[in-house]
User: Fold this.
Amino acid sequence: MIKVEGLTKKYAGITAVNDLNFTVEKGEIVGFLGPNGAGKSTTMRILSCYLSATSGRASVAGFDVASQSREVRSRVGYMPENVALYPEMRVQEYLEYRAALKGVRGRRNRQRVNAVKELCNLRDVEQKLIGALSKGYRQRVGLADALLHDPDLLILDEPTIGLDPNQIRQVRQLIKDLGKRHTILLSTHILSEVEMTCSRVLIIDRGRIAASDTPEALAGRVRTAGGIRAEIHAEAGDLEKALAALPGVRKAEVEAMPDGWQGCVLRTDAEHDPRESVARLAATRGWALRELGREQVNLERVFAEITQSEELR
Amino acid sequence: MNFFTLLNREIRAYFLSPVAWVVMFFFLLLTGFNFYAGVAALNRGPSEVTVVEAFFNTVFFWFGFVLIFPLITMRLFSEEYKMGTIEPLMTAPVRDSQVVLAKYGGALFFYIVLWLPSLLYFAVFTRVTRLEAAGAAGPFLGAYVMLLLIGMFYLAVGCLASALTRNQIVAAIMSFTVITLFFFTGLLNFFLLNVTPALRELTAYFSALEHMSEASRGFFDSRPVVFYLSLTVFVLFLTFHVFQSRRWRN
Assistant:
């Protein structure tokens, strides 16, 4: 569906995208993950024909983004990072206008507008002026706009940014549902979002692809970055020794908590999950165990892990 | 088809914004006053000019005239750049040329609407005085055709200025300067010390003041027609290229 070869974009002396290569197959939901300024938005803007590349080629559904741009645009639904809308228009009016621009006219116009309003929960605000909408609603109008012409490919640039937790959940579910019928390329810098919605992850760093993997495999690669957290009531020295002796544990840190319990953090190898053995250990030694779980892995850690290991290669 | 969708949105954008109504209000005030002044002058005694000529060749008319173009055109592209709405617009399957022409068309439509009430002045004048407003259809038609021709060119200049910047004020200043220079070229004769006949000819060729005064007396000259139409096409062509270049500049 998407094919990118040697794509480079320079502006004002900065190389935003540097010799980028990747492909996305039909039906995939691909997460584009990277820190701010990594070149995610620039790549998406080139794919949606808003910007021209400095060099390299990109094609969508077999059409070249530079020379067959209108063919590409009529097959791509693009939601920009900052959804910009005409504030003086009403939601209904705006969607009808956008659908017409995308060649959806007549009876199909009304059908599609109704369908996307339903999909994005815009029924209650259809007669409101866009200028009076909250950020969450605007974001949904942007998404509805991207869906109007039932595109083969959806390009969503940070679709959940600025939404409240409830809306984020709704939008993620919506993206998952849409993934059944559309190919989706979405960018984010929230790791859990990728794990929840995507079938594949592309990690982009300084304009290059640093990794391409399934979310599970990626999580495996970065497991060592996180660790296992446990809270156990025991004598500190004993506990530390016993934990360190468990298979797969590289390092065990034990720290006394104010209420007499011990907070433990275990660093492990990627292929080991010692949670079960920790529970069994606590049971056999008669220690009280009140918390056991994986430490939250944040994106900075993942990046540090992946980009560093890239450099080491 | 896309062109009409875009044009429709451009025209509605004008009438949905308060700016359009404010411009219309003050423009009507100014032209109304101008008309009143013209009639008052004719009232003072016999005159060689008709009311049409008096209307289109006064300082009030000139000032109002050069000012409206920056006001009409400054938002066309600049506002879309600034608000970011250019991104959804240009990622829809529309041609750059369609966008440029629709924006220009919207401005032209608004410009024409702006002038419609002035027709009423002359209708009222004819009714009240029982005099033929222009003396003949020629000056009347000539003045309005010239109004349209000059307007077409100046609106194109405004489009170009707006396509160049995301700042509406900058766009307005650029178009105002260029339009003023073109419009008042005819006055150059009064400032230069040695005006040769050749120079006078040349400035007359460029001078909108001259074109207007000729047309409102009922003279038809094909040179200004060619002049304004070709410049309009040329400037719109430039606008199209400036607009296209954003893909590489950003």
Q: What stands out?
A: Chain A has two domains: 2-221, 227-296.
